[in-house]
Amino acid sequence: MNIVQKAAANMLLNYISDDFLGKLPRILKLAEKLDRGNFHATQITTVRNVLLDESNVWHTFARNLVQEVDKKCIMKFVEGFIINTHLVGNERRQAIEKKYDCNVPWTILIDPTSACNLSCTGCWAAQYGSRHNLSYETLDSVVREGKEIGMYFYIFSGGEPLVRKKDIIRLCEAHQDCYFFAFTNGTLVDDELCDDMLRVGNFALAFSIEGDEEATDMRRGKGTYRKVIEAMERMKAHRLLFGYSTCYHRYNTESVGSDEFVDDMIARGCRFAWNFTYMPVGKDARTDLMATPEQRAYMYRRINEIRATKPIFAMDFWNDGEYANGCIAGGKRYLHINAAGDVEPCAFIHYSNVNIHDVSLLDALRSPLFMAYRRNQPFNGNMLRPCPLLDNPEMLAAMVKESGARSTDMEAPENVDVLCAKTAPAAKAWAEVADRLWAENPKCRQPASEAVN
Predict the structure, then answer these.
(1) From CA 270, how far away is CA 314, in angstroms rounded?
(2) Residue range 338-343: average pLDDT?
(3) In this predicted structure, which of 108-117, 258-267, 399-408, 423-432 has the lowest mean pLDDT?
(4) Which residues contact 441 (CB under 8 A, 6 or more apart)?
(5) Which of 99, 189, 357, 386 matches a 20 to 30 Å C-alpha distance to 364?
(6) What string of DSSP letters covers 322-353?
(7) How confident is the model at residue 122 (pLDDT cuts 50, 70, 90)?
(8) How many CB atoms lie within 10 A of CB 135?
(9) Could you say which DSSP state residue 261 is in?
(10) Which of 198, 177, 190 is nearest to 241 (CA)?
(11) Hey, is 152 helix, strand or coil?
(12) What CA–CA distance (Å, rounded) separates 262 from 257?
């Protein structure tokens, strides 16, 4: 960041600290100055249009955010996620991509541990126990290497990442220019952690929840729902930033997409929602949990309705392919490092050529499987069929074989043809529905490069 950019960034943070909405026009002008390559002009214009309109749901979202969340937490989010990740880091990442002809993502999903205090139905991590852990030194090294190539946003999963909450807080302290985020089952959130999160400011949580109490306890164990709700109440009382994450499957899709559930989560203080569909990964994975094509289409429509009508930022990991020009994995937007150090294209793709203990982060991005992803993305011209496993399983099988990647499943290595055979029927059934949906979408009539905001 040059001197002018740094001064503009400091002014932006000062504006946010007081009367955010009143100073928004000046904030957006500063954002335009920071965006030297004009990479985010469309997004800045969109933000200007929606946040300055008092009748818009996103104005309500912003107003609630600044009134109910601690100012330091908001400022650290803006510094780490908006300024450093997207405005400053983007230029550096593009330079590295051009120099080395490889993908450079803006975030890493990393598992500090394979340990978890729950054993959820359909979760492969439940099989791993506590055998694998990444040391603090390894986690710190990944972040340091990431910053060198323009990455300032780090997401933790597992296992249950809060098993390592002291090390995560230590990372937040050491890298105040970054933003950190964790998916958690919520059962290890206490007042001490909330105080630490308030102190560092640059750490947020997404609570895993499956809908109502019955649906959540069915997959996660009796009493889990109440513990999650108690954790949300504790976070809200501390004025912290948090949201929820849900896995929609054959038996809960209509529930987690309902107005009743979403409104309840908003009332409890959630600011964002991550929606994932169930993936049958792992030797004993239940294929009957996979959502039907009709349920996936329902979620596609519902997420768009929620964005237009409710003050919460909702994402659908698969159905949002139209906003990312297909699959975001393989380093295109993110990658995954498991608790053993294997560098994988995605949290759901357990194959790799390299381990972070043996290679640099940049070398991992240039490994054979990641380069196969880069050559083949997008995997389908229909952006509602982005995934090489769930939607185009023949693509994943070909890339794994071409690259010579090995299975990284910690319990029982899985042949890629066996894995892809689980999703092939669902991919075929979804193709018929997705192609109809895509034909109705104006973006399908544009070149893929222009179909992404």
Answers:
(1) 10
(2) 96
(3) 108-117
(4) 322, 384
(5) 386
(6) HHHTS--TTTTSEEEE-TT-BEESBTTB-EES
(7) low
(8) 12
(9) H
(10) 198
(11) coil
(12) 7
With vertex at residue 84, the alpha carbon angle to CA 71 and CA 53, rounded to the nearest 5 degrees, is 55
Cβ atoms of 184 and 206 within 8 Å: the answer is: yes
Model pLDDT, residue 40: 77
Main-chain phi, psi angles of 333, to 5 degrees: -125, -25
Three-state secondary-structure class, residue 13? helix
What are the backbone dihedrals phi and psi of residue 245, each rounded to the nearest 5 degrees, phi first?
-130, 135
Please give the Cα distance from 88 to 123 (Å, whole number): 36
CA gap 347, 392 in Å, rounded: 17
Q: How far apart are CA 16 and CA 80, in angstroms?
A: 14
Nearest to 386 by CA among 444, 297, 304, 325: 325
Nearest to 273, CA basis, from 232, 307, 300: 307
Tell me: pLDDT of 107 over 60. yes
**Dihedral of the CA atoms 78, 81, 84, 85 (nearest 10)?**
-150
CB 202, CB 80: distance < 8 Å: yes
Instruction: Tell me the two tokens of residue 190.
Output: 């206490």
Nearest 5°: the CA angle 161, 167, 170 is: 130
Strand partners, 154: 108, 180
Residue 323 backbone dihedrals phi, psi, to 5 degrees? -90, -10
Both structure tokens of 410: 């910690």
Q: Give the residue among 397, 375, 378 at the shortest CA–CA distance from 387.
A: 378
160-191 burial by CB neighbour count: b if 16+ within 10 A, else e? Answer: bbbbbbebbbbbbeebeebbbbbbbbbbebee
Closest CA to 13 of 199, 176, 203: 176
Could you list the beta-strand ranges (E) of 149-285.
153-156, 179-184, 203-208, 242-248, 272-277
Location of structure tokens 């997409």: 257
CA-angle at 83, arms to 82 and 84, nearest 5°: 105
